[in-house]
Amino acid sequence: MNDLQPTVPVNTPLLRIDRLSVSFETSLGRVKAVQEVRLDLHERETLALVGETGCGKSVVASAILRLLPKNASVQGKVIFAGRDLLSLSEKEMARIRGCDIAVIFQNPSLALNPIIKVAEQIAEPVQIHKGLSRHRAIPMAEDMLRRLGLRERTLSRMYPFQLSGGMNQRVMISTSLILSPKIIIADEPSKGLDLSLASQVTGELAKFRDEIGSSLLLITHDLLLAREVSRRIAVMYCGEIVETGNSGEIFDEPLHPYTKALLNCLPERGFQPISGSSPSMIYPPTGCRFYPRCQKRQKKCRERPEMVKRNGRDGGMSREVRCWLC
Amino acid sequence: MLALLKAVNVSKAFESGLIFKKHRLVLHDISLEIEEGRTLGLMGASGCGKTTLGMILGGLERPSSGCVFYRGIDIKKLRGDDYLAFRREVQMVFQEPEGSLNPRKSIERSIHEILGLLEIPKREWRNRTSEALEKVGLSEELLCRYPGQISGGQCQRVALSRVLLLNPKIMILDEPTSALDISVQAQILSLLKDLQRDMGLAYLIISHQPEVIMFMAHEEIVLEDGVIH
After folding, report:
1. Are residues A162 and A307 in the same domain?
2. Do residues A115 and A92 both lie within one domain?
3. How many domains does the structure of chain A reveal?
4. Are A278 and B186 inside 8 Å of each other by CB?
5. pLDDT tens string for chain A (326 positions)?
């Protein structure tokens, strides 16, 4: 699927996340979920954001679309089409959500309304954003379902609880893509699906991305899926991006000790666990966040490293890493 | 060697419909054996009957026909202390770690619940709790927290620590890592291997991931539409 990607992204990114920090005020203390994240997503590019559960990946997705709860405090910029999404009014954001930037949430059984037929749910964005009547929007929804492999006409008249997890995920994808958005944010699209179903669903998502020419921000903890679908990967640990680079380079020559340790957890590398446990997001380590678990830690690692550029295979400075030792 | 747990010609059908009864056969003529200290892997796609078979072997579901033997005795005929010993020695670990724990009880209370059932004197609870946590690599800091305040991997470790307090001989692990991400999956699988080596446990590990089965199991069987292939 990598071959389907355009080889060189254009210079101006479609979406630029600049020094994005998100924290949540809770009864236990301030949770520092995302810390100074910088990411660029180019036109027709697929970027995978990978990391362990709880490292802040989904918070980044919600922050882009401003879907965070009220106890969240957000700093930084999210630039889309020359405008900072974080400073737009709610009315302007509502126009962008679904139309320009769409999100596919994990757990479709929870994201879909259980008491509305699936075709009605898929047709809703068309009715709201394009002002089409229900009469014209429903056939469009049925067509989307057909294109995603749900060809039986009766399926569109069913409720989410009457469909399997894989079918519901396809309904979610149809709802998100029916307006041909410029950016698709897929938050763990394969979570809860078994291996063959996950591969089918993501294959269809990648096919659709190519058909409508969208950019895809894939958020996943599944490293193999990230390698299969995306051209670039950003590795996140404890709220920070620790390494970015082309998928092949990240897998073949990882630079950051965390990326190396994460790849060693893969089945083909013998399920080698990372020693220690993830640090608290309320009291994260002050220096490098991986310092307490790093096998190569030095005294210097107690200070916070900056993200630095490194040579990629293509000769350009296409890689970035946050480590004193790399 | 005598099989610790053995299924002989086990079939299971579920009934549906109020007036017009329909029977759906989910398991057909399954026979298998689990020996002491060994791991049997049970693999198959979603909905093929893996969990139902695990529940039958764990005594949580009755087969429609066929028998399950524990240490050579049909589990239907177990009574009194023998039945209690079976329930204690054959334990299940489920897929959703958060679902295995009561969300309204702290981790400490969840562990104490087991110690109370085992009628262990209260003065020993503190030491026994520390030992249980140490076995699964958790710190005592977590004791005052609730399941919603700890990660999925930590929840699964707490669930394992509760099971280990009962001193089981066989653990039926139903997709024990499929709700966890890759790094936590590696931690749990390596912990399970260590426990097997130290305590001589037998496992039936149920998974749809062939790589998990290959890593853990000494023997493996594949279930397809309720039939062993």
Report:
1. no
2. no
3. 2
4. no
5. 444 444 444 578 999 999 999 999 988 789 999 999 999 999 999 999 999 878 899 899 999 999 999 999 999 999 998 999 999 999 999 999 989 999 998 777 778 999 999 999 999 999 999 999 999 999 999 998 888 878 777 888 899 988 877 788 889 989 998 999 999 999 988 776 767 777 777 888 888 888 889 999 999 888 888 998 899 999 999 999 999 999 999 999 999 999 999 999 998 898 999 988 788 888 999 899 999 999 999 999 999 999 999 887 777 768 999 999 98
* Residue A271 to residue B190, Cβ atoms within 8 A: yes
* Cβ distance of A196 and B45 shorter than 8 Å: yes
A195–B contact, CB cutoff 8 A: yes
- Judged by a CB distance cut-off of 8 A, whether residue B211 touches chain A is yes
Q: pTM higher than 0.90 for the full model?
A: no
Question: Does residue A93 belong to any structural domain of this protein?
Answer: yes
Rounded Cα–Cα distance for residues B194 and B198 (Å): 6
Q: Which CATH number does the domain housing residue B220 bear?
A: 3.40.50.300
Please state the φ and ψ torsions of residue B123, each to the nearest 5 degrees: -65, -20
- A326 domain-assigned: no
Alpha carbons B15 and B122: distance in angstroms, whole number: 46
Contact B184 A266 (CB under 8 A): no
A234 part of contact set with chain B, CB < 8 Å: no
Shared domain for A207 and A114, answered yes or no, is no
* A9 shares its domain with A135: no
Instruction: Tell which B residues from 7 to 36 touch A, by Cβ distance under 8 Å.
Output: none
* A36 burial via Cβ count (<10 Å: 0-12, 13-18, 19+): middle
SS3 state at A193: coil
The question of ipTM being above 0.85 is answered as no
Contact A221 B182 (CB under 8 A): yes
Give the domain range for residue A315: 2-100+181-321
Spatial CB neighbours of A270, under 8 Å, sequence gap ≥ 6: A264, B215
Quote the domain boundaries for residue B50.
39-63+88-228
Strand pairing partners for B16? B22
